[in-house]
C-alpha cells in the first residue's frame, strides 16, 4: 500500500538505532490507525495531521534530546500554524497545490537533466575520454574516420593513453537460443575497452591478438543479453554462440550499466565483437567512430593542436584520400548528449520559470493573507506576544506550506519521471537511468526551504511596518493608506515577464512543429508496413543467395490477400540509416583531392518508386532485367578485388538519381544516359530522375542522392516494405509466416508501419513542444490568477477611496480606468521585459526552431495580444465591482 | 509526568503488554480521548526504559504471537513513580471537586 511506503520513508526522520529498534512496530501501529481512520477526506486529513505532528515532535525529540523545551515550542508553533492554515482551507489547499506542482515539475525535470547532462558516465574517469572525428572544412564537423586514418592517428599521436574504434556495420542475428533475435552489435577494437576503462563482470575483454584478421571469433555480451538469453549462467564464458550463423566464443559479460556505444536509435548494445580486419587497407571507407583516453595532464586543447598537425601531415602525404580532412577532439560526454542538450536546458529554464511564477503567486496569496491578519497580529502583540514570537509563528506557517508542498511535489516528481520515461522517444541517451535520486531530492529540499523562507519573510516585511495603535484604532479601513504596494506590483511584473518568456518559447516551437508537419516528405507513408531483416552471412554467403531470398519473399508477400505492392530497400526512409559516398561525374574535370562531390545512396528493388508514390520525372525506374552477375558494384578501396564475372556480358550498372543530384551535378543538362562512378565502382549509367524525398528527416533538406538496383547491389540488411489495403492488424503475423516459410531461423521482430517510423523521428521534437506548451498553459493560468488576485485585492482595499472619489463627482468610467490601469500598468512592463527575455532564449535555442526566426513577428504579436487580453479579462471583474461601489454606503460605514 | 508517560505506565500496571497492546489499551480506557501516535508511544517507551521505570521482556515464545513484538513490564521503581503521581493527581482532583462544587 502507498501510505505505508510513505510512512516507512518518513521514518528516516528518526536516528537509525531508534528506527531499527521500533520501526517495524511503528509501521504496524500506523497501519492500525490508518485502518481505523474515517474513510472520508476529512477523516484522512485529520489522521495525517496526527501522523505528521507525532512524527515531527517525537523525531525532533529523538534527534535533539537536550532541546526538549524548544521541541515543545516548535510543536506548539506547528499546531498553531496548522490551525491558522485550516481556518482558510481553500486558500491553504491552493497554496499547497501550487507549491506541489511547481516543486514537482522542477524536481522531475531536474532529475532528467541531471541524469542526461550532469551525472558522470559509468566509465573510469569519464572526463578523460574524448571522441575523435574527421573534420571537413566547416560543413562537416563530424565525419566518421577513414580506415587509413585511424592507424596513422594512433601511431603519430602522443596525447592519448589509448585509442579505440567502433564500427556499426554488422547487425548480427542470434540463433540457437530460443526465437531468433536481431542484436545491436557494434564491432570494436581491443583498445576500445582500454579507453572506457570498465572491467567485465565476468570473464575478459578482447586482447590485441583478437584485432588480427582470423582471430575475431570472440564476443563480449551485455548484462541484459546474459540475463535474458543465458539465464545469468556464470559458466557462459567459453560457450559458443551463433551470430548470424557463425560461431563466436563468449569471453566476457559487461556490467549492467555499461551501455556504450548505443545503436542508431539509442538502443543499448547486446554484443561486442572485434573488428579484426586490415583497417588500414580500407582507405576510402569512412566507417569508424573513434574514442580515446587523454594522457594525464594533457588538455583537450593540446590534444586538438597535436591532432591538427597530424591531420595536416596525413593530408599532405595522402592527398587522394585525405586532402582537406582535419581532425577534431571532443569530450565524449558532450558528444553523447549534444542533440538534446539545448532542448533540455530550455525545458529546465521553462520549468524553473514556472516554479518562480508559482512562488510569486504563493507569495502574493500569503501577502494578502498577512495583510488581512494585521489586526489579529496587532491584538497578539498588544496582549504581550513578542514580535519574535509572532515572527516564529509566521515562519512555522510557511514551513507547513513548504513541507506539505514539498512532500506533494516529491510524489508528483516520482510520478512525472516515470511518465516521461514511459512516453519519451527512445533516442534520448541515458534517459532510462533517470530517477528521483539524492541530488534531485536535495534540489527539491533546497527549493522547498527557499520558498518557505520567502513565505515566512514576505509577511514579516510588512509586519515590521505594523503600528499597533494605528492598526487597532483604524480597524480594517486603515489599510486604504498604503494603496500603493510596490512589492505586489513588482511580483505581477515578474510573473507576466516570466510567462511571456515561456509562452513565446512555446509559441515559436509550436509554429516550427506546424511547419515541419506540413513538409511534403516526397513519399506516401500511409498503408506501408516495413519489416527489417538481416540475412546471416553464413547461409546467405553469395550475393545471388541474398537476391534469391529477397525475390522469393517479395513474391510470397505480394501474393498475400490485401497486399498491393511489396518492395525492398537497404535503408527505410527516415529510419536513421543512410550512407554518403564520394562520386565522380564523367565528362567533368576531376575535382581537387579531398573536395570530391558527395552523394547519399540507397538500394531499392524494382517497383520501389511506384509503391512509395515517388514520381519519376524523366527516364524510367529499375526493372528485373537490370540484374547483374558481377556484384557488388561499389568497391571500397582500390585493392579490393573485382567481383567474379566482372568481364562477362551482362546489363550495365544503372542508377536513378534525385532532382537535387541532377541539379547540382548536371546543372541544366539532361542527366539521362550520362555516367558517374561512386568510390571505386565501374561507371554507372543514369536511367531516371525522381522527385526529391526527405529520406533522413522531415526537417532535413534533401541531399544529392542516387538509387541503385537491388539486382545489381544485393544487400544483407534489407527492409521489406509492403503496401496493403484494408485492416492491417493481421499483416505482421502473415508477413512473419511468409518469411518463415522460406527461412525459419530468420528473426522477424522489427515490424513497423512507415507512418510510425516517420512519427518516431519527430518524437523528440513533439515531446519538447508539448512539454513547453503544457508549461506555457500552466504559466498563463498562474499569471491570470496572480493578476486577478492583486487587482481585486487592491481594488477592495481602495473601496473607501473610490467611495470618496465618487462622492466628489468622479465618473464611473474613471473608476473603471483606475482599476484597469492598476493591472495593465505592471502587465505592460512585464510584457516588455518578457519579450526581451524571450528573444534571448529563442536566440540561444534557435537550433530547435524550424524555418521560424527567433524574432518571428507573428508569434510575438500574438503573445503580446494574448497576454494583454488575459490581463484585461482578469481586471474586468474587479473593475465592475469597483464601479458599483455605493459612495453613500461606504461613507456611512465610516 | 507527561500524559503519555502516565497512560503508558497505567496500561502496564495491569499486565505486561507489547507496544500495540499499550496503544489499544490506552485508547480504550480513555474512550478514545488519548490516541498515542507511533512516534510518541515508542519514544516514550524508550525514555521509560532508559529511566528504569519499565523493562523489556524480550520476545515471548514465537508460536503464540507475532515474533517481532517485544513485551514490556512495569518495574518496582515505575510502580512507585506511578503511585506517587496518582496520589498527587488524587489530591488535585479532590481540591478541584470541592471548589468546583462550591463555586
Shape of chain A: elongated
CA distance, first residue to last residue of chain A: 58 Å
Radius of gyration of chain B: 16 Å
Tally of structural domains of chain B: 1
Q: Please identify the top-level CATH class of chain B.
A: Mainly Alpha
Span between termini of chain B: 29 Å
Average pLDDT for all residues of chain A: 82
- Stretches of chain A where pLDDT is under 50 for at least 5 consecutive residues are 475-483
Give the class of chain B from helix and strand content and strand pairing: mainly alpha
Multimeric organization: heterodimer
Number-wise, the strands of chain A total 25
Please, how many helices of chain A?
26
Question: Greatest chain-chain interface?
Answer: A-B, 23 and 18 residues
CATH architecture term of chain B: Orthogonal Bundle
Helix content of chain B: 55-70%
Number of helices of chain B: 4
- Uncertain residue ranges of chain B: none
Number of domains of chain A: 4
CATH superfamily of chain B: Winged helix-like DNA-binding domain superfamily/Winged helix DNA-binding domain
Major sheet characteristics of chain B? 3 strands, antiparallel
Describe it:
The complex is a heterodimer of chains A (894) and B (103). Chain A has 894 residues and is α+β, with helices and mostly antiparallel strands. Chain A is built from 26 helices and 25 strands. In chain A, strands 1, 2, 3, 4, 5, 6, 7, 8, 9, 10, 11, 12, 13 and 14 form a 14-stranded mixed β-sheet that branches. Chain A has a six-stranded mixed β-barrel with strand order 17-18-23-20-22-21. Chain A is elongated and about 115 Å long. Chain B has 103 residues and is mainly alpha-helical. Chain B has a single domain (3-102), classed as Orthogonal Bundle (Arc Repressor Mutant, subunit A), CATH 1.10.10.10. Chain B is 62% helix and 11% strand. Chain B has four helices and three strands; from the N terminus they run H-E-H-H-E-E-H. Chain B has helices spanning 3-14, 19-29, 38-51, 76-102, and strands at residues 17-18, 54-58, 71-74. Chain B has a three-stranded antiparallel β-sheet with strand order 1-3-2. In chain B, helix 1 (3-14) packs across helix 2 and helix 1 crosses helix 4 (76-102).
Amino acid at each position: 500500500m502507498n501510505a505505508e511506503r510513505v510512512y516507512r520513508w518518513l521514518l528516516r526522520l528518526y536516528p537509525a538505532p531508534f528506527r531499527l529498534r521500533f520501526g517495524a512496530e511503528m509501521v504496524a501501529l500506523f497501519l492500525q490507525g490508518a485502518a481505523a481512520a474515517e474513510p472520508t477526506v476529512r477523516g484522512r486529513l485529520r489522521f495525517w495531521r496526527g501522523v505528521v505532528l507525532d512524527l515531527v515532535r517525537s523525531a525532533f525529540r529523538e534527534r535533539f534530546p537536550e532541546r526538549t523545551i524548544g521541541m515543545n515550542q516548535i510543536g506548539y508553533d506547528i499546531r498553531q500554524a496548522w490551525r491558522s492554515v485550516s481556518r482558510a482551507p481553500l486558500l491553504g489547499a491552493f497554496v499547497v497545490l501550487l507549491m506541489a506542482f511547481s516543486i514537482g515539475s522542477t524536481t522531475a525535470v531536474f532529475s532528467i537533466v541531471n541524469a542526461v547532462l550532469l551525472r558522470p558516465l559509468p566509465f573510469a574517469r569519464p572526463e578523460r575520454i574524448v571522441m575523435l572525428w574527421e573534420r571537413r572544412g566547416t560543413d562537416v564537423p563530424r565525419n566518421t574516420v577513414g580506415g587509413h586514418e585511424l592507424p596513422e592517428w594512433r601511431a603519430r599521436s602522443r596525447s592519448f593513453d589509448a585509442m579505440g574504434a567502433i564500427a556499426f556495420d554488422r547487425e548480427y542475428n542470434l540463433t540457437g537460443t530460443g526465437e531468433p533475435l536481431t542484436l545491436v552489435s557494434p564491432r570494436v577494437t581491443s583498445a576500445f575497452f582500454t579507453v572506457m576503462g570498465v572491467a567485465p563482470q565476468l570473464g575478459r575483454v578482447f586482447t590485441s591478438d583478437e584485432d588480427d584478421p582470423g582471430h575475431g571469433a570472440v564476443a563480449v555480451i551485455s548484462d541484459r543479453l546474459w540475463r535474458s538469453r543465458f539465464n545469468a549462467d556464470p559458466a557462459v564464458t567459453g560457450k559458443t554462440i551463433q551470430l548470424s550463423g557463425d560461431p563466436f566464443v563468449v569471453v566476457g559479460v559487461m556490467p549492467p550499466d555499461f551501455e556504450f556505444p548505443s545503436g542508431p536509435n539509442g538502443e543499448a548494445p547486446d554484443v561486442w565483437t572485434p573488428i579484426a580486419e586490415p583497417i588500414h587497407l580500407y582507405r576510402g571507407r569512412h566507417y569508424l567512430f573513434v574514442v580515446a583516453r587523454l594522457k594525464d595532464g594533457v588538455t583537450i586543447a593540446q590534444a586538438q593542436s597535436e591532432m591538427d598537425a597530424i591531420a595536416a601531415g596525413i593530408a599532405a602525404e595522402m592527398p587522394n584520400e585525405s586532402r582537406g580532412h582535419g581532425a577534431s577532439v571532443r569530450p565524449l560526454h558532450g558528444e553523447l548528449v549534444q542533440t538534446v542538450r539545448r532542448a533540455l536546458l530550455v525545458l529546465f529554464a521553462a520549468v524553473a520559470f514556472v516554479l518562480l511564477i508559482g512562488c510569486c503567486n504563493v507569495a502574493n496569496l500569503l501577502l494578502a493573507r498577512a495583510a488581512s491578519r494585521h489586526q489579529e497580529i496587532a491584538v497578539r502583540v498588544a496582549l504581550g506576544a513578542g514580535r519574535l514570537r509572532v515572527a516564529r509563528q509566521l515562519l512555522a506557517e510557511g514551513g507547513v506550506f513548504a513541507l506539505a508542498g514539498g512532500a506533494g511535489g516529491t510524489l508528483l516528481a516520482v510520478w512525472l519521471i516515470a511518465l516521461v520515461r514511459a512516453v519519451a522517444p527512445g533516442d534520448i541517451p541515458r534517459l532510462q537511468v533517470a530517477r528521483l535520486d539524492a541530488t534531485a531530492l536535495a534540489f527539491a529540499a533546497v527549493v522547498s526551504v527557499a520558498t518557505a523562507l520567502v513565505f515566512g519573510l514576505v509577511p514579516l516585511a510588512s509586519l515590521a511596518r505594523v503600528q499597533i495603535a494605528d492598526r487597532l484604532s483604524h480597524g480594517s479601513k486603515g489599510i486604504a493608506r498604503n494603496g500603493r504596494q510596490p512589492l505586489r506590483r513588482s511580483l505581477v511584473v515578474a510573473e507576466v515577464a516570466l510567462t511571456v518568456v515561456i509562452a513565446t518559447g512555446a509559441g515559436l516551437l509550436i509554429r516550427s512543429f506546424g511547419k515541419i508537419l506540413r513538409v511534403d516528405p516526397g513519399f506516401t507513408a500511409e498503408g506501408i508496413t516495413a519489416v527489417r531483416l538481416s540475412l546471416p552471412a553464413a547461409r546467405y554467403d553469395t550475393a545471388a543467395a541474398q537476391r534469391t531470398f529477397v525475390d522469393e519473399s517479395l513474391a510470397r508477400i505480394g501474393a498475400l490477400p490485401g497486399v498491393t505492392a511489396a518492395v525492398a530497400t537497404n535503408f527505410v526512409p527516415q529510419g536513421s540509416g543512410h550512407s554518403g559516398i564520394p562520386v565522380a561525374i564523367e565528362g567533368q574535370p576531376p575535382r581537387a583531392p579531398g573536395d570530391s562531390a558527395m552523394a547519399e545512396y540507397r538500394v531499392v528493388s524494382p517497383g520501389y518508386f511506384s509503391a512509395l508514390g515517388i514520381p519519376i520525372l524523366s527516364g524510367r525506374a529499375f526493372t528485373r532485367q537490370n540484374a547483374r552477375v558481377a556484384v557488388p558494384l561499389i568497391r571500397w578501396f582500390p585493392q579490393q578485388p573485382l567481383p567474379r564475372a566482372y568481364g562477362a556480358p551482362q546489363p550495365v550498372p544503372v542508377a536513378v538519381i534525385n532532382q537535387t543530384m541532377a541539379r547540382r551535378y548536371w546543372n541544366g543538362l539532361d542527366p539521362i544516359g550520362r555516367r558517374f562512378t561512386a568510390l571505386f565502382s565501374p561507371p554507372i549509367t543514369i536511367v531516371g530522375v525522381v522527385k526529391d524525398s526527405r529520406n533522413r528527416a522531415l526537417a532535413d533538406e534533401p541531399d544529392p542522392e542516387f538509387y541503385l538496383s537491388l539486382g545489381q547491389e544485393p544487400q544483407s540488411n534489407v527492409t521489406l516494405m509492403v503496401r496493403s489495403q484494408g485492416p492491417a492488424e493481421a499483416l505482421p503475423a502473415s508477413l512473419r509466416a511468409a518469411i518463415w516459410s522460406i527461412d525459419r531461423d530468420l528473426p522477424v521482430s522489427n515490424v513497423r508501419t512507415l507512418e510510425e517510423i516517420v512519427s518516431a523521428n519527430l518524437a523528440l521534437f513533439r515531446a519538447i513542444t508539448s512539454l513547453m506548451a503544457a508549461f506555457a498553459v500552466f504559466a498563463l493560468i498562474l499569471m491570470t490568477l496572480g493578476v486577478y488576485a492583486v487587482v481585486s485585492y487592491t481594488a477592495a482595499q481602495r473601496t473607501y477611496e473610490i467611495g470618496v472619489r465618487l462622492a466628489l463627482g468622479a465618473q464611473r468610467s474613471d473608476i473603471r480606468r483606475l482599476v484597469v490601469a492598476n493591472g495593465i500598468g505592471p502587465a505592460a512592463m512585464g510584457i516588455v521585459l518578457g519579450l526581451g527575455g524571450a528573444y534571448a532564449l529563442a536566440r540561444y535555442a534557435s537550433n530547435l526552431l524550424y524555418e521560424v526566426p527567433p524574432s518571428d513577428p507573428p508569434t510575438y504579436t500574438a503573445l503580446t495580444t494574448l497576454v494583454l487580453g488575459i490581463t484585461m479579462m482578469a481586471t474586468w471583474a474587479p473593475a465592475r465591482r469597483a464601479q458599483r461601489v455605493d459612495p453613500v454606503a461606504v461613507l456611512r460605514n465610516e | 509526568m507527561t500524559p503519555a508517560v502516565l497512560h503508558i505506565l497505567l496500561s502496564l500496571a495491569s499486565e505486561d503488554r507489547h507496544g500495540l497492546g499499550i496503544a489499544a489499551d490506552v485508547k480504550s480506557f480513555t474512550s478514545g480521548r488519548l490516541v498515542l501516535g507511533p512516534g510518541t508511544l515508542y519514544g516514550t517507551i524508550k525514555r521509560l526504559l532508559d529511566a528504569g521505570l519499565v523493562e523489556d521482556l524480550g520476545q515471548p515464545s514465537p508460536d503464540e504471537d507475532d515474533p517481532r513484538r517485544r513485551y514490556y513490564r512495569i518495574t518496582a521503581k515505575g510502580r512507585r513513580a506511578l503511585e506517587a503521581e496518582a496520589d498527587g493527581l488524587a489530591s488535585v482532583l479532590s481540591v478541584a471537586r470541592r471548589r468546583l462544587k462550591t463555586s
